[in-house]
Structures are given as C-alpha cells and as structure tokens.
Amino acid sequence: MRSIEQIENLEEKKVLLLVDFNVPIKGGEVEDDFRIRASLHTINFLLEKGAKILLITHLGKDGSASLDPVIKRFWEISKLGKDRIEFFENIRKFPEEEKNDLEFAKKLSKMGDFYVNDAFSVSHREHASVVTLPKLLPSYAGFQLEKEVENLSRAFHKPEHPFLFILGGAKFSTKMPLIQKYLELADEVFIGGALANDFLKAKGYEIGKSLVDDTNYDIKKVLENKKLILPVDVVVKSGDKLINKKINEVGKDEIILDIGNETVKNLALLVEKSKFILWNGPLGKYEADGAKSTKEVLKSVLNSNTQTIIGGGDLVSVFSSLDPRTYKLEPNVFVSTGGGATLDFLANGTLPGIKALG
What we know:
This protein has 15 helices and 16 strands. The protein is of the alpha/beta class.
C-alpha cells in the first residue's frame, strides 16, 4: 500500500476520503464516536497539505439512515473549519455501491483528484467505493488503515510468546477458521461468549435455552486440542435472577449470559503471564446484563504491560464504556476499528480493499 505521506502535491486538490463513520446512534445522538476520532489524524494531515476533502461513509445497512447526527458529532470533536470538508450522502443509499457497479465508481471518481482509504472496517467488502474506485484514481492508504494492518499483522508475524488468544461473541461460522488458525499460532486459546455454548454442548454439558449454532462443525476435533480453554463457570439467567453456576449445574430452562467469577480469575492469571494477547468479541451477551465479566477482564488486560490487540465492534463498544481514568492505553494496547474486517484480516492476512490499493 502507498501511504498518503507519499502524495507529492495536495495543494488545492480534492481527496475522496473513504471513512467508516457507521457508529451507534440512539435518540438522534452518536453513542460512541471511536471510529470518527480514529480518522482525525488522516483528515488533519490532508488539510495541512492544502487538500479539500469529500468524506464518504455509510450508516446502517440499507442506506436509509440520515448522516446528520454523525456530521454534527464530527464537527463537535474535530473543531475544524467547514470550508474545506464536505460529506457525500450515505453511500449505502445507492444500490450500485453494494453491487460494485463500475459506472457508479466512475461517477464518484470524477469528483476528486485522489482516493484515500482510511476505512479498515469496511475493507472486507467488495463494494464500489472500496475496491473499484481506488482503481480509477491515484490511491493511497490513510494512517488508520496503516495502523490496523501494522498492528493486526503482529498476530501472525512472529508474535511474542506466551501468546493468549481470547475469542468471544457469536457467529460461529465466521470464527471457526480463526479458532483453527490460532490453535496453531497461539499458546492458549480461550473461548467465551455464545461460541463457548457450542463447545460446552459438544462436551455433553447442559446449556439450557442458551444461544447455539446448530450447524455441524468439526468441534470434537478442536476439543481434543490441549491449548483450548473453556469457561469453568457461567452466569445464567434463571427466571428474573442472575446466578453464578459451575458449568455442570446449568438448568434446562436457564440461559447462559456470561462467563463466571472463577473463569474471570483464571483469565486474569493467563493475562498476567502472557506477553502477547489477541482478543476479539465480548465474553458474554453484553447487551443483556452480560457485560460484567468482559469489563473485568478488559481491566486486567489494560492494567497489564502485555502487548494487546482488541477488536470486534461489540467488544470495542464495551471498551468505550469504561472510564478512561481507570486504565492506560498507550503504548501496549491497540484497539481495532474493525468487526468483520478484523476477523477476515486475522484469518487471511489481507482484505479486498487493501489489495485494491496495490
């Protein structure tokens, strides 16, 4: 990838800057502006070089969402003048975007002199603004995209050992390749979140009415791997109560919401002895009273000196909810802006949007 630092003359040039400002919005207000803040380094650099910027982003899945709350928050946190930056419409509003339509990409290309991709978190999608537009203009990587590639690559390019891989969340189909890959690369692989339910069920434990993926994956072979670590206790919802139980005590009408206290302590010990941690996905159903353990383990990680990469949209949302005064972030912790893009990059070592810049 060519870096924006390699562009020779930006004075009065128009840059089409792809960003991912797909942020959570509630009551017309942005709840978490982490992704917006991540783009400011690139934006400020381009402005300092004399460029004009057209920001291209999507919001929501079908393009119907208004960008107004995002634009409002952007001006609030950036404190930049409005004379050299403008926003394109919600790119998902146009069906041609997801169809990767060449003519649509050509229309976009006529609006600028250069293309910069700073949207790592959408770079796994083969959409017009991600993979076709960069072929029609001189194209470069923004600083956030470069940081993502540099940091995430450490997970498979000579990581330090002991290497602890923590994987949570759901969507078993997207995470099975990661489990298989990092059972080879890491020293220990801890599985939490809804993913753990599938493994516990395969081991013969009762999981009640907990979320599982009924697709037939080759879990039993993975279970034989001595690097695999599963919860020894869980927090279940039993009626209206939340109860901490050992994994062999879950009832048929109960729902597993989180990993338990003993498991949190075990994970904290693993964090303490590790030299490199890669963590993707929350350890519980964080939106339904299942964020407590994820927060506890996050605090252990953030207060250690262990080199750490944190990724996955839901995990980053939990991270953003922590009081920043309770931990230190730099220089040992990198927080990825990606969700599915982070998973794909960790599994494959590249993404379509990255290849398009080559």
